[in-house]
Design brief:
CATH topology of the largest domain: Immunoglobulin-like
Structural class: alpha+beta
Shape: elongated
Helix content: 10-25%
Distance between the termini: 76 Å
CATH architecture of the largest domain: Sandwich
Number of helices: 2
Radius of gyration: 22 Å
Number of domains: 2
CATH class of the largest domain: Mainly Beta
Oligomer: single chain
Strand content: over 45%
Largest sheet: 5 strands, antiparallel
Length: 165
């Protein structure tokens, strides 16, 4: 019983040092040298397309311009195709993007485009014509004391690349 206070003191010292080391690693995400990651919609994969429900897999490419790995712990997003909202929501998947590298973050999406079906059919009549997309949202990065980085990108996808022959 005499050794009990010593163990508690040693354990609390180890825990405190561990927390300080974690905070030191997080400080690079808040410093002036931190550069925001670049996020773009790389691919839209059709999983299932039924009349009243469509399932897609949105694949986002996350580029990390920093000299340290970047933990991603979620994405809040809204994706528009031309002027139609394809999907919006929040994903809580985790991913670590390597330093000065990139990785793909995949988000499964369930939607109902029934009210826009006429317009979508018109868009798909010419599968070689590009369709504009717009991505707005926030990417959640960091571990304990995370940070949110605003994401906005525009681009084009060509429907013919996603339609099997």
């Amino acid at each position: 019983m005499l050794y009990q206070p010593r163990r508690i003191r040693m354990l609390s010292t180890v825990v405190l040092l561990s927390l300080f080391s974690l905070l030191a690693g997080c400080s690079t995400w808040f410093g002036a040298s931190f550069q925001d990651p670049k996020v773009e919609l790389a691919k839209v994969e059709i999983i299932k397309a039924r009349l009243l429900e469509q399932q897609f897999l949105l694949r986002f490419r996350i580029d990390n311009p920093n000299d340290h790995s970047l933990p991603v712990r979620g994405l809040v997003y809204t994706v528009h195709l031309n002027d139609i909202e394809l999907a919006s929501g929040e994903s809580s998947g985790w991913l670590t993007v390597p330093a000065n590298g990139f990785d793909y973050y995949e988000v499964p999406v369930h939607t109902n485009l029934w009210k826009h079906m006429k317009y979508i059919v018109r868009l798909l009549e010419k599968p070689d014509r590009p369709i504009r997309y717009r991505l707005d949202g926030e990417i959640k990065i960091g571990m304990m004391l995370g940070r949110r980085v605003h994401v906005a990108s525009n681009g084009e996808i060509i429907p013919g690349n996603f339609i099997p022959e």
